[in-house]
Design brief:
By secondary structure, the protein is α/β, with parallel strands linked by helices. The protein is 38% helix and 22% strand. It comes from Streptomyces uncialis.
Length: 221
Protein backbone atom coordinates (compact mmCIF):
# COMPACT_ATOMS: atom_id res chain seq x y z
CA UNK A 1 0.00 0.00 0.00
CA UNK A 2 1.15 3.55 -0.75
CA UNK A 3 1.21 5.82 2.32
CA UNK A 4 1.53 9.62 2.47
CA UNK A 5 2.74 10.81 5.93
CA UNK A 6 1.25 14.22 6.80
CA UNK A 7 2.70 16.35 9.63
CA UNK A 8 1.03 19.42 11.14
CA UNK A 9 3.73 21.40 12.94
CA UNK A 10 2.24 24.35 14.80
CA UNK A 11 3.74 27.21 16.80
CA UNK A 12 2.61 27.15 20.45
CA UNK A 13 4.42 30.31 21.55
CA UNK A 14 2.80 32.69 24.02
CA UNK A 15 1.76 35.08 21.24
CA UNK A 16 -0.43 32.31 19.77
CA UNK A 17 -2.58 32.29 22.91
CA UNK A 18 -6.22 33.09 22.30
CA UNK A 19 -7.69 33.28 18.83
CA UNK A 20 -4.87 31.75 16.73
CA UNK A 21 -4.64 28.52 18.71
CA UNK A 22 -8.35 28.48 19.54
CA UNK A 23 -9.21 28.65 15.85
CA UNK A 24 -6.69 25.94 14.95
CA UNK A 25 -8.00 23.68 17.70
CA UNK A 26 -11.53 24.22 16.37
CA UNK A 27 -10.34 23.24 12.87
CA UNK A 28 -8.62 20.00 13.91
CA UNK A 29 -11.89 18.01 14.13
CA UNK A 30 -12.78 19.24 10.63
CA UNK A 31 -9.38 18.17 9.33
CA UNK A 32 -9.94 14.83 11.04
CA UNK A 33 -13.29 14.40 9.30
CA UNK A 34 -12.01 15.65 5.93
CA UNK A 35 -9.28 13.03 5.81
CA UNK A 36 -10.65 10.10 7.80
CA UNK A 37 -14.16 9.91 6.28
CA UNK A 38 -12.94 9.64 2.69
CA UNK A 39 -11.99 5.95 2.31
CA UNK A 40 -9.46 6.60 -0.45
CA UNK A 41 -7.72 9.33 1.54
CA UNK A 42 -7.87 7.60 4.93
CA UNK A 43 -6.37 4.49 3.39
CA UNK A 44 -3.35 6.37 2.03
CA UNK A 45 -2.71 9.00 4.71
CA UNK A 46 -1.12 8.95 8.16
CA UNK A 47 -1.19 12.03 10.38
CA UNK A 48 1.14 13.44 13.06
CA UNK A 49 0.68 16.60 15.17
CA UNK A 50 3.69 18.44 16.62
CA UNK A 51 3.46 21.57 18.78
CA UNK A 52 6.53 23.73 19.38
CA UNK A 53 7.62 26.74 21.38
CA UNK A 54 10.79 26.66 23.52
CA UNK A 55 10.79 22.91 22.94
CA UNK A 56 8.83 20.59 20.66
CA UNK A 57 6.40 17.85 21.56
CA UNK A 58 4.79 15.12 19.50
CA UNK A 59 1.17 15.59 20.54
CA UNK A 60 -0.18 12.92 18.20
CA UNK A 61 2.20 10.26 16.81
CA UNK A 62 1.75 9.28 13.18
CA UNK A 63 -1.55 7.44 12.94
CA UNK A 64 -4.40 6.54 10.65
CA UNK A 65 -6.97 9.23 11.53
CA UNK A 66 -9.81 6.76 11.20
CA UNK A 67 -8.34 4.92 14.21
CA UNK A 68 -8.80 7.78 16.69
CA UNK A 69 -11.81 9.70 17.97
CA UNK A 70 -10.27 13.08 18.82
CA UNK A 71 -7.00 14.89 18.32
CA UNK A 72 -5.15 16.58 21.22
CA UNK A 73 -5.40 20.35 21.49
CA UNK A 74 -2.60 22.89 21.20
CA UNK A 75 -1.70 25.10 24.18
CA UNK A 76 0.41 28.28 24.18
CA UNK A 77 3.55 28.76 26.21
CA UNK A 78 7.22 29.71 25.81
CA UNK A 79 9.11 31.24 22.92
CA UNK A 80 9.23 30.38 19.23
CA UNK A 81 12.13 27.93 18.84
CA UNK A 82 12.12 26.65 15.27
CA UNK A 83 15.22 24.50 15.70
CA UNK A 84 13.56 22.15 18.16
CA UNK A 85 10.58 21.81 15.83
CA UNK A 86 12.77 20.84 12.86
CA UNK A 87 14.87 18.41 14.89
CA UNK A 88 11.80 16.73 16.36
CA UNK A 89 10.15 16.59 12.93
CA UNK A 90 13.22 15.02 11.33
CA UNK A 91 13.40 12.37 14.04
CA UNK A 92 9.72 11.57 13.60
CA UNK A 93 9.96 11.30 9.83
CA UNK A 94 12.96 8.99 9.96
CA UNK A 95 11.40 6.63 12.53
CA UNK A 96 7.92 6.78 10.97
CA UNK A 97 9.12 5.99 7.45
CA UNK A 98 11.26 3.13 8.73
CA UNK A 99 8.26 1.67 10.59
CA UNK A 100 5.96 1.99 7.57
CA UNK A 101 8.52 0.36 5.30
CA UNK A 102 8.98 -2.45 7.81
CA UNK A 103 5.23 -3.07 7.53
CA UNK A 104 5.65 -3.46 3.77
CA UNK A 105 4.28 -0.08 2.67
CA UNK A 106 5.60 2.19 -0.05
CA UNK A 107 6.04 5.65 1.46
CA UNK A 108 5.63 8.88 -0.48
CA UNK A 109 7.60 12.00 0.32
CA UNK A 110 6.08 13.39 3.55
CA UNK A 111 3.98 16.56 3.56
CA UNK A 112 4.45 19.16 6.32
CA UNK A 113 2.01 21.97 7.13
CA UNK A 114 4.15 24.41 9.17
CA UNK A 115 2.32 27.28 10.86
CA UNK A 116 3.84 30.14 12.87
CA UNK A 117 2.86 33.63 13.96
CA UNK A 118 6.28 35.05 14.71
CA UNK A 119 9.97 34.51 14.18
CA UNK A 120 12.45 32.03 15.64
CA UNK A 121 14.17 32.88 18.93
CA UNK A 122 16.94 30.29 18.59
CA UNK A 123 20.19 30.93 16.70
CA UNK A 124 20.69 27.44 15.29
CA UNK A 125 17.33 26.93 13.60
CA UNK A 126 18.68 27.34 10.06
CA UNK A 127 21.14 24.49 10.58
CA UNK A 128 18.33 22.28 11.90
CA UNK A 129 16.19 23.29 8.92
CA UNK A 130 19.02 22.47 6.49
CA UNK A 131 19.43 19.02 8.04
CA UNK A 132 15.70 18.44 7.61
CA UNK A 133 15.47 19.39 3.94
CA UNK A 134 18.77 17.64 3.11
CA UNK A 135 17.71 14.39 4.77
CA UNK A 136 16.91 11.24 2.82
CA UNK A 137 13.15 11.64 3.31
CA UNK A 138 13.10 15.38 2.58
CA UNK A 139 9.52 16.55 3.13
CA UNK A 140 7.39 18.90 1.05
CA UNK A 141 6.98 21.83 3.46
CA UNK A 142 4.00 24.15 3.10
CA UNK A 143 4.50 27.10 5.47
CA UNK A 144 1.82 29.53 6.64
CA UNK A 145 2.66 32.78 8.39
CA UNK A 146 -0.04 34.46 10.48
CA UNK A 147 -0.09 37.57 12.65
CA UNK A 148 3.39 39.02 12.99
CA UNK A 149 5.21 36.20 11.20
CA UNK A 150 8.26 37.25 9.24
CA UNK A 151 7.66 36.96 5.50
CA UNK A 152 11.29 36.15 4.65
CA UNK A 153 11.45 33.44 7.30
CA UNK A 154 8.25 31.78 6.05
CA UNK A 155 9.61 31.85 2.50
CA UNK A 156 12.82 30.25 3.74
CA UNK A 157 11.13 27.49 5.74
CA UNK A 158 8.90 26.36 2.87
CA UNK A 159 10.19 24.36 -0.08
CA UNK A 160 6.83 23.68 -1.75
CA UNK A 161 4.35 26.49 -0.95
CA UNK A 162 4.49 29.54 1.32
CA UNK A 163 1.63 31.83 2.36
CA UNK A 164 1.22 34.92 4.54
CA UNK A 165 -1.99 36.03 6.19
CA UNK A 166 -3.33 39.08 4.39
CA UNK A 167 -6.91 39.42 5.57
CA UNK A 168 -7.16 39.09 9.36
CA UNK A 169 -10.84 38.17 9.01
CA UNK A 170 -9.64 34.89 7.48
CA UNK A 171 -8.28 32.79 10.31
CA UNK A 172 -5.51 30.22 10.47
CA UNK A 173 -8.30 27.70 10.92
CA UNK A 174 -9.67 28.59 7.50
CA UNK A 175 -6.22 28.12 6.00
CA UNK A 176 -6.01 24.71 7.65
CA UNK A 177 -9.44 23.75 6.32
CA UNK A 178 -8.52 24.92 2.83
CA UNK A 179 -5.30 22.97 2.99
CA UNK A 180 -7.03 19.79 4.22
CA UNK A 181 -9.59 20.02 1.43
CA UNK A 182 -6.87 20.67 -1.16
CA UNK A 183 -4.75 17.78 0.11
CA UNK A 184 -7.78 15.49 0.05
CA UNK A 185 -8.59 16.42 -3.56
CA UNK A 186 -4.96 15.86 -4.51
CA UNK A 187 -4.86 12.40 -2.92
CA UNK A 188 -8.14 11.37 -4.55
CA UNK A 189 -6.95 12.53 -7.99
CA UNK A 190 -3.57 10.88 -7.57
CA UNK A 191 -5.00 7.61 -6.27
CA UNK A 192 -7.26 7.32 -9.28
CA UNK A 193 -4.26 7.54 -11.61
CA UNK A 194 -2.04 4.98 -9.86
CA UNK A 195 -2.05 1.61 -11.64
CA UNK A 196 -3.42 -1.42 -9.82
CA UNK A 197 0.09 -2.79 -9.34
CA UNK A 198 0.98 0.31 -7.30
CA UNK A 199 3.59 1.59 -9.73
CA UNK A 200 3.91 5.28 -10.42
CA UNK A 201 4.20 8.20 -8.04
CA UNK A 202 2.01 10.44 -5.96
CA UNK A 203 1.35 13.81 -7.58
CA UNK A 204 0.97 16.46 -4.89
CA UNK A 205 -1.18 19.22 -6.40
CA UNK A 206 -2.02 21.46 -3.46
CA UNK A 207 -3.68 24.72 -4.48
CA UNK A 208 -1.36 27.64 -5.19
CA UNK A 209 -3.69 30.18 -3.57
CA UNK A 210 -5.57 30.29 -0.27
CA UNK A 211 -8.36 32.84 0.33
CA UNK A 212 -7.20 35.60 2.68
CA UNK A 213 -3.51 34.73 2.24
CA UNK A 214 -0.86 35.97 -0.18
CA UNK A 215 1.58 33.61 -1.87
CA UNK A 216 5.20 34.17 -0.81
CA UNK A 217 8.15 33.51 -3.09
CA UNK A 218 10.28 30.66 -1.84
CA UNK A 219 13.83 31.38 -0.75
CA UNK A 220 16.34 30.02 -3.28
CA UNK A 221 18.55 27.85 -1.13
Amino acid sequence: MQILPFYLVCDESGSMNGDPLDSINSALPELHREISTNPTVADKTRFCLIGFSSDAKVLQPLVDLSDIDTLPGLAAGGLTAYGEAFRTLLGCIESDVAALKAEGHDVYRPVVFFLSDGGPTDDDWQQAHKELIDARYRPNIIAFGIGEADRATIGHVANFRAFMQQDRTVSAAQALREFAASLTRSIVRSASSIPADGSGGFNLAVDETVPGFTTVSLDKL
